[in-house]
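Exercise 4. Each item below gives a protein and its sequence. For each, produce the structure-token representation.

Item: non-specific serine/threonine protein kinase (Morella rubra).
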Amino acid sequence: MAKPKSFLQNLMKPFKFSSKGQNEEELEKIAQQEQKLFPFETLAAATKDFHLTHKLGEGGFGPVYKGKLNDGREIAVKKLSHSSNQGAREFMNEAKLLARVQHRNVVNLLGYCVHGVEKLLVYEYVYHESLDKLLFKSNRREELDWKRRYDIIAGIARGLLYLHEDSHNCIIHRDIKASNILLDDKWVPKIADFGMARLFPEDQTHVNTRVAGTKYVVKNPGDICFLIRAAFDPNCFSNFSVLESKNSGYMAPEYVMHGHLSVKADVFSFGVLVLELVSSQRNSSFNLHVEAQNLLDWTYKLYKKGRSLEIMDPTLASSAVADQVAMCIQIGLLCTQGDPTLRPNMRRVVVMLSKKPGNLEEPTRPGVPGSRYRRSRRPPGLTSTAGTSGSLDSHSSDSTSNTNTASASASASTSVTPGLDPRGKRPVQG
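Answer:
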């Protein structure tokens, strides 16, 4: 295990202390030693000179291209944008983290390339691209029957458990969302895009940091001072009620408002993604019910009325297992609770998903950025196995199961076919 560690130390060294020319020479030398170097000419040939027809998408890092090597392997190539300072940081962050990570549910970094001003990361190509391209498109989401969706939920959970507890260091992804989940030819989910990820100190339960990867829009010119303060004091967001973030649909409220980061931030994002997989609705653009401000709010209100299965995508009616769907809805609500100390850690989530639907604790109200959570008091006799905020040593808290809570299936209707509700139930979608 010493070799990857040494490799990472050497990889970081030239970017921090050497000149530009020395950076490239030393990085190429290290890459050759680690057998992770791809010649630029090889990648140019594989992508037809980075032709537009080979472009898969683009993010803060830069464009991503599909390519095919001479040995037949299909690859995805991330090409650093020359003008992106954020992309340069993401390049180093992703190279540093993924060089040490290997898991079935995490995208595999094959290597990298530095050629003049060009910097590229090379990944395995994942056949079905990203989850959002199937889940939120009416003409494709039928490809995701209930079994596939359930397997995707379980796979993402295992990938996050690995990152949080079983990798070399605790890694907080910070950007879990549908567009960062790739599906291979066997529909195995793979967590991707580690440009925003962060190594977590082993001796801390949380850290305070600026919110990563967000772009804010000021609605009131009088609030511009808060943008300036945000660069120096993340806690100023507690007084900033007019910001919108492009990723706010997945981001934990304590992270958005206060820069308070722990593994529970990833848990919150996972919970949002679970509910999106059940409903095929985006939390960030939800508008199906006038009395619900987002997907989480709508789900929680239906859950409290014993009608949680009504959020289910109608296309799942023929394949859904009612008890499993209800359990996933309840897990999604548990993961998105406003109080991060009540959210289960990923080990607990994996345990819940690996068992037959049974008794789970009752979720409290979901968290919403802009609101302050209160430490919820559970009714007498109810004990939570959710664990403590950001605790990395979760094994003891998850070793016992909770038997004094309400059944997931009891909170849902017995039929898996949702009906129409004239008071605001969403219509059947084609």
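Check: The chain has two domains: 2-124, 132-411.
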